[in-house]
Amino acid sequence: MVETTVALDSFDAKILDVLAVDGRISVTALADRIGLSKSPTQARLRKLEADGVIRGYRALFDPILLGRDHVAFVEVRLTDTREVALTAFNRAVLEVPQIEQCHMIAGSFDYLLKVRTQGMTDYRQVLADFISTLPHVAGTSTYVAMQAVKEEGVAPVPPAG
């Protein structure tokens, strides 16, 4: 996997900082906030989008108000960790909407999943019908979250330079 980085100057970093908090801000208001006029701000915004730095804009929903307040973290151990098995697992995870996040882990297990459901009964069904049947799953361990202390944190933009 080849990873590249994009060089950001202080204006690009300011744009990202503002958008991380208010993705619906107008270009005019964004320009005012970062200290540039509208045209260069718009050009920088388009470049950040074209370069893939800004991958999209979305609404954040309150999962509790939508009845999805049960969060479980699931350690997954695989029977096989060759590339073909990892690829099969990765593809299958994308098809399970209750899995909000999936991270490959270095340690005593292979993946850590964040699963959001309506309650324990719903979670047990998702575990039985989907997670346990994912390709190459040898076993799982579940940890139920009691409270989300910090969930929608925004990673700081690295300083320009």
Automatic annotation (TrEMBL):
InterPro entries listed in its UniProt record: ArsR-like_HTH, AsnC-type_HTH_dom, Dimeric_a/b-barrel, Tscrpt_reg_AsnC-like, Tscrpt_reg_AsnC/Lrp_C, Tscrpt_reg_HTH_AsnC-type_CS, WH-like_DNA-bd_sf, WH_DNA-bd_sf
Superkingdom, natural source: Bacteria
Gene3D superfamilies reported for this sequence: 3.30.70.920, Winged helix-like DNA-binding domain superfamily/Winged helix DNA-binding domain
One Gene Ontology MF term: sequence-specific DNA binding
UniProt domain HTH asnC-type: residue ranges: 8-69
Protein's name in the database: Transcriptional regulator, AsnC family
Organism the protein comes from: Loktanella atrilutea
Alphabetized UniProt keyword annotations: Activator, DNA-binding, Transcription, Transcription regulation
BP GO annotations: regulation of DNA-templated transcription; response to amino acid
PANTHER family linked to this entry: LEUCINE-RESPONSIVE REGULATORY PROTEIN (PTHR30154)
Keyword DNA-binding on entry: yes
A single cellular component GO annotation: cytosol
